[in-house]
Amino acid sequence: MVALEKDLHLMRIYGQATGYRVATSQYGDTSVFKGVFKAVNPTTGEMSTAGECCLPKSVENQLAAILNAADGAEFAFDVWAVPAKNAYGYEYRVKSVPGVDVAPAPVILNLEAKMGMLKLEAPQPAAEETEPTSKKKK
What we know:
6 strands
């Protein structure tokens, strides 16, 4: 195996997570996040979108903890592979994109805010039915 010689920016990944499930493999458990995600290759500009994503362990627990307490969470990370003296020759390093904190973000509330909280008018009481008035003969 060839060890990584310098830092390699793998992707920028961002999105809104609405939940997660735990998947188990021969390598252990990992959280698979559900929601709306986009990844961008910083070298080619190629973009991918998905309804599920896996993140490096260093941020996986943080995002899962937020989702345990909230209906959704938003995030934006730059993911790097950096040289390491381990069996793989690299490890992942994750940096938050400046200006975007990992934070609770109830998806429906964000959408409502963008819509300007379009509200339906309050229901009007039904008009009372009245009996027809009789006309007097002259």
